[in-house]
Amino acid sequence: MGYEYLLSGLPELVAGSPSPITMESLLTLFDEQLNKKDKQLLRELCMSVDDQRISELIARYDDEDILNNDKPEWWDELRQKLSEADIRATLLYEMGLKSKNSFIRDWYAFNQDMNNVLVASICRKHNFDIQKMIVGHNAIATTIRENYKKKDFGLSEVMDNYNVILSLAEISDLMVREKQMDALRFEWLEGRTEFDIFSVEQVFAYYLKVNMLNRWSLLTVEQGEQVFRSMVADMKKGVQL
């Protein structure tokens, strides 16, 4: 199903500019016009580390009285080693990477890879254990763990945007760094949906862009400090700072 009328009627978004639509208005519009299947996919896209589904998954994996055929083979070992925040972040990516929608899988993979490169660089700078701080089990995470002693973590030949992401780790101002990360996300969304005309993937990309633009528009003089502290807390959960 295409969303020609929905997408044609939405205001244009410009990176770095205030959002022309609120998240509340956008979600109301989506609730009216998306089909049931795509609404479910949107919920997958909107997951966070605090999602109830992750809490339920942890409880099921931890329950020794039931048979968990879907429990990851690494669960018992990492459950003892990782913090609750690390476990939740790991499961968030694992769930996103198992989505039936390729856009959602690619979005979670992009963010996981970007965060892991930043984490690896920061860990090296502060002499933290890189192997314990990397989240997930995809190719990039595995490469970093296996090549943590190499200057480029073994990524310069296998990750196109490695140097760009690595440069973000040198930005000491956390707010500036987060804005640069969002700029990369915005650019990625543009490229990923360039040929997905009027598709649900375009709808998802629009949602993510509006979410980013609205987040930064909240940074008024009155709200700035509170929002910034919340952003830093969220980023610590997501990228293990």
Please describe what this structure looks like.
23% of the residues are buried. The protein is 64% helix and 0% strand. The chain is globular. It has one domain (21-239). The protein is mainly alpha-helical and 241 residues long. It has helices at residues 4-8, 23-33, 36-45, 52-62, 75-81, 84-97, 102-126, 130-133, 139-146, 162-168, 174-192, 200-217, 224-239.
Strands, count:
0
**Uncertain segments of ≥5 residues (pLDDT<50)?**
235-241
N-end to C-end Cα span: 41 Å
- Continuous helix count: 13
What overall form do the CA principal axes indicate? globular
Overall SS class: mainly alpha
Overall average pLDDT: 86
- Main sheet characteristics: none
The helical percent reads 55-70%
Classify the beta-strand content into a percent band. Answer: under 5%
Number of domains: 1
Radius of gyration: 19 Å
How are helices and strands ordered from N to C? HHHHHHHHHHHHH
